[in-house]
Design goal:
The protein has one helix at residues 90-105, and strands at 19-22, 25-32, 36-40, 51-60, 63-77, 80-86. The termini are far apart. By secondary structure, the chain is mainly beta. It has one helix and six strands. Strands 1-2-3-6-5-4 form a six-stranded antiparallel barrel. Strand 5 and strand 6 (80-86) form a beta hairpin.
Length: 108
């Protein structure tokens, strides 16, 4: 995995805190975008190329929004896995983008 500045990506990476559930365990997300995320210390049995089911947790104060999706593990670097969303539902993608906008504006 190599470092890429945001202007070379198809989606800008942001580091607004969210979490992801993989195999009934919760993991922190280092950074994310509308096309994928970087998971901190994921399960050891995940390998590059694996298709996995994930649930993205978007905290909203006293509650949370959970978005289900499929993802493909694309790369691994220093304990982080780069995961690309696969066939994410349009509605969930809109929710993710709207959440990012609200967080950037300070309205979460």
């Amino acid at each position: 995995m190599k470092f890429e500045v945001n202007d070379k990506r198809k989606s800008h990476r942001i580091n607004i805190p969210i979490k992801v559930i993989i195999d009934n365990a919760t993991y922190f997300v280092k950074d994310w975008s509308a096309s994928g995320l970087k998971v901190e210390y994921p399960p050891a049995d995940i390998e590059i190329g694996d298709e996995i089911s994930i649930s993205i947790i978007l905290p909203t104060g006293g509650s949370a929004i959970i978005l289900d999706s499929k993802a493909i593990v694309r790369n691994e670097y220093q304990g982080y896995y780069g995961v690309e969303f696969k066939d994410m539902d349009d509605k969930n993608n809109r929710v993710l983008r709207h959440y990012a906008t609200l967080a950037i504006e300070g309205n979460i």
